[in-house]
Amino acid sequence: MTASDTPFSPNALKDRIVFITGGATGIGRGTVEVLGGLGAKIFIASRKQDVIEAAVSDLTALGIDAACAVCDVRDPDAVERAVAECVEWYGGLDILINNAAGNFPCPTAELSPNGWKTVIDIDLNGTFYCCRAAYPHLKASEHGGRVVSITTSLGRSGWPGAAHAGAAKAGILSLMRALAVEWAPDGILVNAVAPGPIAGTVGVDKLYIETGREKEMTSRVALGRFGTTADIGNAIAYLCSSAGNYVTGLEMVVDGGRQWTFTANS
Ligand code: COA
Question: For the whole model, what pTM was predicted?
Answer without folding.
Answer: 0.95
